[in-house]
Amino acid sequence: MPWGGQPQPQGPIELRVLVEMLPVVEPELTWRDRLRAMVARLLRPLMTWRGAVALFLAVAPIPGVGESAATIWHYTVSEARGMSIGSGYAVGFVPLAVSGLLLTRVGPTAPRLWALAVTTVGAFGAMSWYDVVQLFTGVTR
Question: Engineered SS bond to 126: which of 36, 73, 92, 139, CB 3.0-4.6 Å?
Fold first, then answer.
């Protein structure tokens, strides 16, 4: 009796296991978690060396001209705004939307990051804080 005086079991031992498959329930994300994920997804291309070089080239002065591509585009958008407010916003924000859409849908490359930086700076040439006053009151300058 190898088991300390107890008799050995006779025959096969049956072991029954019941496995119950439960669906995996992931916790629902809070609005902060969704916002953090969205910002991280949008800023990820800018945190690479290509993004840093593209941003630098967008605001670096062009040799022989003395102005950067971003400031030249800002001046162009400001001139369009001088013609009319609508044309200023169209010239400023349509290229910004297209470059942002290309960057997020197609993928980040250095030229797309450069175009996004240039059009972002240029879009500020179309904006004026007084536009909000004019929108709500109708009072022009």
Answer: 92
Phi first, then psi: give them for residue 100, nearest 5 degrees.
-65, -40
Give the mean pLDDT of 89-105.
Answer: 90
Q: Distance from CA of residue 28 to its chain's centroid?
A: 22
The amino acid sitting at 52 is A
Contacts of residue 1, Cβ cutoff 8 Å, sequence gap at least 6: 7, 8
Residues 4-47 have pLDDT tens digits of 677 776 778 888 999 998 888 888 989 999 999 888 887 776 67
Q: Are 89 and 126 in contact (CB under 8 A)?
A: yes
pTM, full prediction: 0.62
**Which residues have C-beta within 8 Å of that of residue 104, sequence separation ≥ 6?**
42
* Residue from 109, 127, 115, 113 nearest 70 by CA: 115
Can you tell me the distance from the alpha carbon of 129 to that of 64, in angstroms, rounded to the nearest whole number? 34
